Each structure stands twice: as structure tokens, then as C-alpha cells.
Amino acid sequence: MSPNPIAEPIRLRLADRVALITGGSRGQGAAHAFRLASEGAIVVLADVLDEDGERTAEELRSKGFDATYVHLDVSSPEDWQQVYEQVDSRFGRLDILVNNAGIVKVTEIAEESLETWNKILAVNLTGAFLGLKTMIPLLKAGRRGAVVNTSSIFGPSGAVGYGSYAASKAGLLGLTRTAALELAPFGIRVNALVPGGVSTPINAQEADGGVVPETPLRRRAEASELAASVAYLVSDDSSFVTGTELVVDGGFSAR
Ligand code: NAD
């Protein structure tokens, strides 16, 4: 190594890494795509919002990044198989998987329908399970895989009206730890992101500011602040970090 590190050419942290981001059409997923692409990654956005996804991918390409959009309902094993085939035929590997897609509906348990419970679990938890399960062969092929599962502060804690959502997000923490143990022998790291309130379309209708009053920093995060943490978790800067949770919540959990 050169005694003067400045003499070394600067290499982007995620140069040439292939990244698949679910729920990438808008919100945090789109912010993750921009951040990872700006650090050198080739990004594939996957979502059910096709128009938004194509627009986001086009915006990325207009900035000179390598970005494509694919249709994916994360709760569908058939859709995952199609995405697997597309990524395999184009790259033969996957370096980064961000299981970010998620939905929420606020209803107390006594009023919650089984249909809604099943839907929220199917997208938020089964979606990440299917993503991991389907993509493991491609993650192994890359030999430097990093997976991030987006949980929530309503994973480690409960919240009135969030029974299905909290169960799905708590489940993701268990899935993350187990996947980290099972995939460590292959050099694949798996971590959970635990966001507090973030300004995105999912909570745009919340008139009361959601968790802002209980957040010591007294605001919602910008999606880009979560993207910075995802970039860390999927880069070699976190090479010894696996099976854990990165809480990005403005102090919510410290109370
Ligand atoms: P968002 O609604 O803007 O983004 C969610 C994305 O997931 C959308 O693009 C949506 O189309 C996509 N999606 C929904 N169902 C899907 C499906 N079946 N298949 C594929 N994609 C699907 O909201 P966001 O804040 O960007 O949410 C991203 C993640 O962060 C979610 O998992 C959410 O639960 C989590 N989260 C959000 C907050 C917050 O305050 N915004 C806080 C904690 C955790």
C-alpha cells in the first residue's frame, strides 16, 4: 500500500455492485437507489408501481447511472422467480438486496380483518423471506453479498393500531438474525434497518405528525438519511457487521 493514501485512486465504495431494491419506485426505496447508484452500484428497482418505477429509473439514467426497473409483487413467488431470471441472465450474480417494500394499515386488533392481517404479513414479511430465499444462489455467486431488511421502530416496540404491521416488522428482525447465521459461511451479511418516522408517501396522510412528538429530534427523517445508513450496511465499511439492527429513529428508542 502507498504510504500516502491520497496518491491512491479514489474508488467508489459500491463500484460495480449489483443492487436489487424492492419498493424502489418511490420513498425510501428510490432514495436508496439514488444513494447506492451515486456510490457506483448498478441498481435494479422492483415494485408494483410501474409508472413511478420507470420514472425513477429514467431519472437515475439521466444522471448517468446504470438503473433499470422491473415489475415485482414481493408477495408472489412467481414474480420473484422472474426477477431472479432477469438478474441472473444480465449479471449472473447479486451483491446487494434491499428488502424495503412495505405497506401499512392502521386498525386496532379487535377491528382488524384476517384479510388485512394476511396482506400485510404477505408483503412485509413473506416478501422479504421470498426475496432472500430466491436470491440466495445469486448472492452466493457474488461472494460479497449484503442484505438489508427494512423493519421499523414498531418492530421492537408495539404501537396502538399497528398489530399486523408491528408483527411483520418484528418478524423481520427474527428473519434477519437467522439469515445472518445461515449465510455467514458464504460471506453474506444480513442486517435490519430500523427507521423511525420518515417523510415518504406511506405516512403523507398522517395529520398529527405520527411519531414526531415522541421523537427527541422532533422531526421526521428525510429518506436520504436512511439511504446513508443502507449504503453503510451494504458497503465494506460494515464488513464485520451482520445479524444486527441499525436504528435510525431520531432518538425514539432511547426514551
Ligand atoms: P412508500 O409507501 O413510499 O414506499 C413503499 C414502496 O413499497 C412503494 O413504492 C410501494 O409501491 C412498494 N410496495 C408496496 N407493496 C408492494 C409489493 N407487494 N411488492 C413490491 N413493492 C411493493 O413508504 P416508505 O416509507 O418508503 O417505505 C419503505 C419501507 O420503510 C417500508 O417497509 C416501510 O414499512 C418502512 N418504514 C417506513 C417508515 C416511515 O415512516 N415512512 C418508518 C419505518 C419503516
At the first level of CATH, the class is Alpha Beta
Shape label: globular
Number of strands: 7
For the biggest β-sheet, the strand order reads 3-2-1-4-5-6-7
The ligands bound in this entry are: nicotinamide-adenine-dinucleotide
Oligomer: single chain
Give the end-to-end Cα distance, rounded to a whole number of Å: 45 Å
| Tally of separate domains | 1
- The assigned CATH architecture is 3-Layer(aba) Sandwich
The percent range for strand residues is 5-15%
Structural class by secondary-structure content: alpha/beta
Order of helices and strands: EHEHEHEHEHEHE
Keywords:
single chain, 255 residues, alpha/beta, Rossmann fold, seven-stranded parallel sheet, globular, binds nicotinamide-adenine-dinucleotide
How would you concisely characterize the structure shown here?
This protein is of the alpha/beta class and 255 residues long. It has helices at 27-38, 50-62, 77-90, 114-142, 163-183, 223-234, and strands spanning 18-22, 42-47, 67-71, 96-99, 146-150, 189-195, 245-248. Nicotinamide-adenine-dinucleotide is lined by residues 22-23, 25-29, 47-49, 72-75, 100-104, 123, 150, 152, 195, 197-198, 200-203.
Topology (elements, then pairings):
Blueprint lengths: L17 E5 L4 H12 L3 E6 L2 H13 L4 E5 L5 H14 L5 E4 L14 H29 L3 E5 L12 H21 L5 E7 L27 H12 L10 E4 L7
Helix pairs in contact: 1-6, 3-4, 4-5
Bound molecules: nicotinamide-adenine-dinucleotide.
Nicotinamide-adenine-dinucleotide binds next to helix 1.
